[in-house]
Amino acid sequence: MSEERIQLTRALKSRHIFMLSLGGVIGTGLFMGSGFTINQGGPAGAVLAYLVAGLLMYLVMVCLGELSVQMPVSGSFQAHATRYVGPATGFMVGWVYWLSWATTVGLEFTAAGMLMDRWFPDVPVAYWSALFVALLFGINSLSTRAFGEAEYWFSGVKVAAILIFIVVGIMAIFGGLPLASGEPAPKFSNLIGDTLFPNGISAVLAVMMTVVYAFQGCEIMGVAAGETDEPEKSIPRAVRNVVFRVLIFYVLAIIVLSAIVPWQQAGLMESPFVQVFDMVGIPFAADLMNFVILTAILSVGNSGLYACTRILWAMSKSGMAPRGLTKLNKRGVPVYALTITLCFALLSLLTSFVAADTLFVVLTAISGLAGTVTWIVIALAQYRFRREHYKAGGTVQDLKYAAPLFPLIPVACILLCTSLFVFLALDPTQRPSLYWGFGFIALCYGAYYFLQFKRQRSPAPIPAT
Predict the structure, then answer these.
(1) What are the CA-CA distances from residue 354 to residues 65, 108, 111, 210 (Å)?
(2) Contact at 8 Å (CB) between 24 and 243?
(3) Cis before residue 186, ω within 30 degrees of 0?
(4) Could you report the per-residue pLDDT of 156-185, keeping only the tens digit for each?
(5) 12 DSSP β-pair partners
(6) Radius of gyration of the chain (CA)
(7) How far apart are CA 10 and CA 26, in angstroms?
(8) Which residue, among 261, 80, 257, has the nearest Cα to 183 in the 3D structure?
């Protein structure tokens, strides 16, 4: 197969990269998981947790931005890790990340189908799941540009919903919109309350990994770098805009939620966003938020399917996955990698019904840990790249985009991510995820060295006489 036939096209514009990164972060973790965070960590604890997670996201984004501008290839951090950390680590992070997103995509299909049950209770959930499978497969197989446009509008709906929520919430906090119950405006009585951390600092630490999971997805920007038009301009712009806007959206939304909904009641409803709209008497609030959450789920599934496909394609091109997966269709899409990913996503979906206590638990544990491991590898690759750059006589001025405060930023990123594993180890309910997650990582390293050993032991071909 010629090199030209296995190259992806650069069809994504700056606006696509921006909304892709934004959409990867703003998802069900905010719309559904924020209530649990407020309930467990308390109002001030939840705000603090999201601020710390936002800082960590910034550290990752600037590290990835430097690497992606210097080496704008599809597969992104998997290729960066292979080049600057080592091929074994590149092999590991590629498969861990692929498995994580493929499992997540499978779960999104079921979640989307269950949301449709609100409007069409007589239609089986499986039918809707099948429809959404076909929809996302069609979007991803059409062209890179089609994927970018779809994700642009998916993300646009989520952003618009959050902006409306923040405006409505602020008005309700200060009495601009009266509460349906007739109670006075809460102002900041719920946010401050009797104590800032009602369940203690340990509860805040326990929810930190959950909050960090909500921010994971920003690294998809790097995966798309190989299909980005003018990456040296669009990627730095995306880094700056995404970090600032995500922090504003997340932190303001959490402050509004904490100020209106008492922390004791948060996490007990389907979505805290729905409850806020109900409290201010917004008609059809549940239906509106059901549509927004459906859009968020489809956006996550769309982005996840894209990320999985490009990671698998990049690994196959470098010999870390079957070579046949490098094949592109006429529109420049890795159709075989897309099909394999979708098949595994459906398989993981099946395990949630037939092996929920065994294989499904293992897959979700690995999925939860994978994002944090990926962030560590990104920071380590950027650290190694910059050291190599300096050893070769290069300077910061030679870089088209440079992460500031080197080596503080990559080191801080690695230390903060590692501390999350300590918090997991201290929580008995989350501790098993460490065993399964790091067990799979060890398995990946073992598989790489075993395959390398087999290649070295393979007899050389006999020359023709």
Answers:
(1) 41, 17, 17, 26
(2) no
(3) no
(4) 888 888 888 889 889 988 888 888 777 888
(5) 228
(6) 23
(7) 25
(8) 261
Q: What is the pLDDT of residues 348-386, one digit of tens each?
A: 777 767 766 677 677 777 877 888 999 999 999 999 999
Helix (H, G, I), strand (E, B) or coil at 12: strand
**CA angle centred on 151, ends 149 and 153, rounded to 5°:** 75
Place of tokens 């509460």: 179
pTM over 0.90: no
Contact present, 21 and 242 (Cβ < 8 Å): yes
Are the beta carbons of 99 and 367 closer than 8 angstroms? yes
pLDDT digits (tens, 9 = 90+) for 124-134: 888 888 898 89
How many degrees, rounded to 5, is the angle at CA 426 between CA 421 and CA 429?
95
Cα Dmax for the chain: 94
Q: From 241, 277, 239, 228, select the one nearest 257 (Cα to Cα).
A: 277
Give the other-Cβ count within 10 Å of 5's Cβ: 10
Helices 125-142 and 87-116 sit at what angle, rounded to 10 degrees? Answer: 130
